[in-house]
């Protein structure tokens, strides 16, 4: 870029794009976006914000920003099936490339906020979001737009097409930071030079926590997930069996809690999890017909604040989704993680709670019950350790946002608002 073009960029209003699976029902992804939007609007109020996302209508309504669909076919009133449907999907991929290029024109920086954009911990295909990310990163490089992968999660991937797209996307980005050391190591192991890439933490730790919320005695939070196994060929062939086994274990565990006199709050982290929670409620009420309504309740929080407030009202949390675990730790709750990916265990280890991180791929009902009873027996000690670590994580998240401000200042000349720390 010439010096003249650089000066022109600084004379006009800085324009920043946000890119990802945002506003589409995943509470964790949306919390990452909100963290960045809040930071930009408080520290860099002159920035013109644009978004390309799977949930463009919801994002546009919530944040009053210009939002474009990540996939052109999502704007169609209906999608045909069969051979015609395949042709429409192929056309849609080509149209997505054009739409992405058009969206990038005029942007200074594109931020991919948090999220596990460089991992494949759940079943996915290369031509889904990984292809969209690769397309955006490549087009941005050609147009001179800097891409910042901010506080993202990563995982070593063995499937060659998926690995190619994720690695190329990471290499093309001008800025990369990670939410844990596990992610940076994974990218290094896949051939990305991570020597200049900082590690902070999950950026949602910068969000405020609810205050003055008291737990209900005897109340347990159970975070559920529409879990069908890992992103591996062996799990894909057994996805129905894996899902049924997961539901059975949770149903038995929920019954055990109810029979011991506990009350239960079922949490979800994505819209697709609601059906799982409803299934568990049905199983509970079928097995215990006289169960009072308030003994088992579904809490379908649609944002991270509501999720944290609901978790603050229980004494102990057992959760599967990563950001359910994060929310529980943020509000200082003794937490047992049923992890579907190594990131759950990494988070729990960093809070000194590694013993209470169980891997779904190997856990059984007896082990779950034994570990829950152990955690429940000394909740106060666990809560103290978690609260101390949570304060440290908030500081690290704020340092990540300060680093983002420095990137924006270098690229656009947009200094943080005077008198407000970056």
From TrEMBL:
InterPro entries: Polysacch_pyruvyl_Trfase
Keyword Membrane: yes
One Pfam family recorded for the sequence: PS_pyruv_trans
TM stretches of this protein: 97-118, 138-166
UniProt KW keywords: Membrane, Transmembrane, Transmembrane helix
Keyword Cell membrane: no
Residue span, Polysaccharide pyruvyl transferase domain: 26-340
Top-level taxon in the UniProt lineage: Bacteria
Name listed for the protein in its UniProt record: Membrane protein
């Amino acid at each position: 870029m010439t010096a003249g073009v650089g000066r022109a960029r600084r004379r006009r209003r800085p324009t920043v794009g946000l890119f990802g699976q945002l506003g589409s029902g995943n509470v964790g992804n949306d919390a990452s976006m909100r963290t960045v939007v809040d930071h930009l609007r408080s520290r860099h109020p002159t920035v013109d914000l644009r978004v390309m996302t799977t949930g463009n209508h919801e994002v546009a309504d919530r944040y009053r920003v210009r939002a474009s669909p990540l996939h052109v076919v999502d704007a169609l009133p209906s999608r045909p099936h069969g051979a015609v449907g395949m042709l429409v999907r192929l056309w849609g991929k080509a149209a997505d490339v054009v739409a992405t290029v058009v969206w990038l024109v005029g942007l200074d920086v594109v931020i991919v906020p948090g999220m596990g954009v460089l991992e494949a911990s759940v079943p996915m295909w290369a031509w889904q979001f990984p292809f969209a990310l690769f397309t955006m990163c490549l087009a941005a490089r050609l147009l001179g737009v800097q891409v910042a992968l901010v506080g993202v999660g990563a995982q070593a991937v063995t499937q060659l097409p998926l690995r190619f797209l994720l690695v190329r996307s990471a290499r093309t980005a001008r800025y990369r930071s990670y939410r844990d050391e596990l992610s940076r190591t994974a990218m290094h192991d896949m051939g990305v030079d991570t020597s200049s890439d900082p590690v902070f933490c999950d950026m949602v730790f910068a969000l405020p926590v609810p205050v003055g919320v008291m737990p209900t005695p005897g109340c347990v939070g159970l975070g559920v997930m529409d879990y069908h196994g890992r992103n591996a060929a062996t799990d894909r062939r057994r996805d129905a069996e894996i899902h049924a086994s997961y539901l059975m274990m949770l149903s038995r565990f929920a019954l055990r809690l109810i029979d011991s006199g506990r009350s239960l709050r079922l949490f979800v982290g994505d819209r697709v999890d609601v059906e799982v929670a409803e299934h568990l409620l049905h199983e509970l009420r079928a097995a215990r017909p006289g169960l009072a309504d308030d003994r088992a309740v579904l809490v379908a929080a649609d944002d991270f604040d509501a999720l944290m407030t609901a978790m603050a009202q229980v004494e102990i949390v057992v959760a599967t989704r990563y950001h359910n675990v994060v929310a529980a730790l943020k509000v200082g709750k003794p937490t047992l993680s049923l992890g579907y990916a190594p990131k759950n265990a990494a988070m729990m280890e960093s809070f000194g709670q590694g013993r209470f991180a169980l891997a779904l791929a190997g856990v059984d009902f007896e082990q779950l019950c034994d570990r829950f009873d152990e955690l429940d027996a000394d909740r106060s000690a666990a809560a103290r350790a978690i609260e101390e670590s949570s304060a440290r994580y908030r500081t690290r998240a704020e340092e990540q946002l300060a680093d983002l401000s420095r990137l924006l200042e270098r690229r656009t000349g947009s200094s943080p608002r005077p008198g407000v720390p970056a």
